[in-house]
Sequence to fold (964 residues):
Amino acid sequence: MKDPLDHHMDKESFRRHGHAVIDWIADFLDDRVDGLPVMSEVEPGEIRSLLPDSPPEQGERFEDMLADIDRIVVPGLTNWQNPNWHGYFPANISGPAILGDLLSSGMGVQGMLWSTSPACTEIETHVLDWMAELLDLPKCFRSVPGPGCGVIQDTASSSSFVTLLTARERATDWKSNQHGLAGVDERLVAYTSNQAHSSIAKAAKMAGIGEANLRTIEVDESFAMRPSSLRKAIESDIAEGMIPCYVCATVGTTSSVAIDPVAEIARVTKEHGVWLHVDAAFAGSAAVCPEHRGMHDGLEDADSYTFNPHKWLFTNFDCNCTWVRDREPLIRSLTVMPEYLKNAATDSGSVIDYRDWQVPLGRRFRALKLWFVLRHYGAEGLRSLIRHHVALAQLFEELVEAHPMLEISVPRALSLVCFHHVDGDDATKRMLEGCNRTGRMFMSHTRLGERYVARMSIGQSRVDRHHVESAWKIIDEQARNA
Amino acid sequence: MKDPLDHHMDKESFRRHGHAVIDWIADFLDDRVDGLPVMSEVEPGEIRSLLPDSPPEQGERFEDMLADIDRIVVPGLTNWQNPNWHGYFPANISGPAILGDLLSSGMGVQGMLWSTSPACTEIETHVLDWMAELLDLPKCFRSVPGPGCGVIQDTASSSSFVTLLTARERATDWKSNQHGLAGVDERLVAYTSNQAHSSIAKAAKMAGIGEANLRTIEVDESFAMRPSSLRKAIESDIAEGMIPCYVCATVGTTSSVAIDPVAEIARVTKEHGVWLHVDAAFAGSAAVCPEHRGMHDGLEDADSYTFNPHKWLFTNFDCNCTWVRDREPLIRSLTVMPEYLKNAATDSGSVIDYRDWQVPLGRRFRALKLWFVLRHYGAEGLRSLIRHHVALAQLFEELVEAHPMLEISVPRALSLVCFHHVDGDDATKRMLEGCNRTGRMFMSHTRLGERYVARMSIGQSRVDRHHVESAWKIIDEQARNA
Fold:
């Protein structure tokens, strides 16, 4: 009988197959993905139909598995790494991030507690201080001297959720965790703009606050929250005996990268003792450049701040950075301490146990990929690439402005251009679908007010002038035929 | 001025550095990790003190970054991949899982919607059907013909949380998401055993139900939930006007791998229309072997089931598998549909959009690593390794039984042996700490009833008889000196 341990992949096989996978990725990203359709062209069920009904009884050869990547998987990819990707926001990856994450896989440690891998915790805390410096975030968010601190979450959705939970708990005198919300006499209320990401509504639902108790505050003509309307809503809710607990301001909305006026919003939240969370999921990365830091004015009065290096900062998903100005309320709201997790380091009170900062217990060594990205590019490289993307978006904006059948829907913000066809929504939609059907580019859409608009989101890692120009040729043709 | 795109790692550099990282991992796992201290020996702050205060302005050489892995990171690792790791539960990795995940990094796709990478969704659904077959789970959980289906979550904590949210919403006539819990007259109650994982209490807190409304049901002498006590608690709560909404049964508790009697518990939950979630986070993997499937008796009456291939099934963290017998209530509870995510495939109703099954919006192509694990090992390889671990635990149990100063605390379950020193808690603690201080092994502890016990958890990917024997020598010596 075969030794059980012989079922593992042996060292030399791992080395050989590992090199093959690295080479596969190098070829894919440099030579292949640009030529693949941006959106996958398969029909629902097509990929599944290529898979055997049952799992194999005997192990298979790695070569066959790798061949199936080309045969089965690649046709079913929508290629976010194709530089003709102009949809949603980018989900950028990079060489250093891939290799940092690979090292994390190879070490296979769990970072739930400081003691279960001190490097995992300490490098995370440190790199988030670095990142705060790089974005020039207010000093209150840095871990030294504290009590502020950063943490890596999976996504901005989770960041909004855990900060909302903390705000909920604080607003109920630290009792909702224990007794639930059914025991709270006054209704809790949260606030965000009507342009905020759907995850805020999802967080209000999950936290038991209820979507009906999330006020979606109206916006101005730039789609930014009106602080005066926020104030009115908060004061009216207080007058009716409700408890305002949480405001989420958005720096760079998903639809149009609108920037809520954080400083003015913070004046309202401070006055009423309401938690202010600032969600800069996409736009935050731009603050590596001094010329884009104005969007963060007022941030020193926020309770928490978040952005996603996994969007525009060349760090593989998942990598969300969240900072709080005071770690104590967050930890107090999320802590669990069963006997089997007790340890001397935690007891000493001198370490961070990140399990108490998030929904899951377990955690991967995600700081490695971020550390590698910051070191590989340096501040200089990151600024250079962000400026390159913004310049390409400026170029695109000028092309749209000069086109007889297209109009800018709202002034460009950073690297996103929202535009529409002069003949109205149906024409815009026909144009957009025509562009995407070519397979040679992809844009997504949104609605701004009542208007259906196309979103040209420029920022894929390897996008260059000729990609924007070739997209423009397609758009021009589709606009004329729409 | 340097071309912005030149800041990226070029293809040949990626290939070269990638090969170096693969070789580093091969050496680390095969030649180095066994000789490293199992628990890191650094003091708090030691790792941070090795890092520069500020992020670099210019990019650095990859060779220097990789050298810092050895200089800075490795001393700060607690080595879950050292085969002398007998703490907590294993967090196993494997060659095929590392390479599957590496491919996922290299493709860099987002699986939030079917349309944003059909292969990511379809392979996940399919592989979870495979896994259900491999564990011989009840057919109700398979996606074909449905309405059951599987999904990959990050951890069992998230699995418990999203199923509790669904139960909460169902028990409030689908109104708590909209109106929150403050509007619900009757108090919701959830149930689990007093041995359940801390994540259940955390879920009750996060969901706004409150820890005080989580009943921790008493256990029998094997530390398994007493169904008669569960029934009494539910009936008493109903009599007092409360609404029982959720029971979490544990198949393999964290402390001692106690198995709650699912079939008897299901009789109670069915009678009262309460959601039954079964958490087999660790133990579930053993069901690849027919001789261990008895623990799943009654599972056909559960509403949801979860286990973690990232513990004992050689699949890198994070990889939790969750199944529901009906996907509709889960999706209904977690769905969000802003304009910018609308697409034709979703509209057609013929595809799964996994964003509606989880807390975050974004998702990584995690199915690849699980697909590779199932194909590399085959059912045969997985069974062989699980049996190997259980046999080693049996061997260890016999050694403890024959030892004059040690006693088994509770009969061995699967690969976990709980034991204590005959001289009492202090002696057990001294023995445990003495063992761990050697750096040549690691066990963790728990309390069973009032007793402090050592947990010898055998199941690291590469553990073999000689590792158990060398641990035994250390334990024997420490027990005699305790």
About this structure: The longest helix of chain B spans residues 367-401.
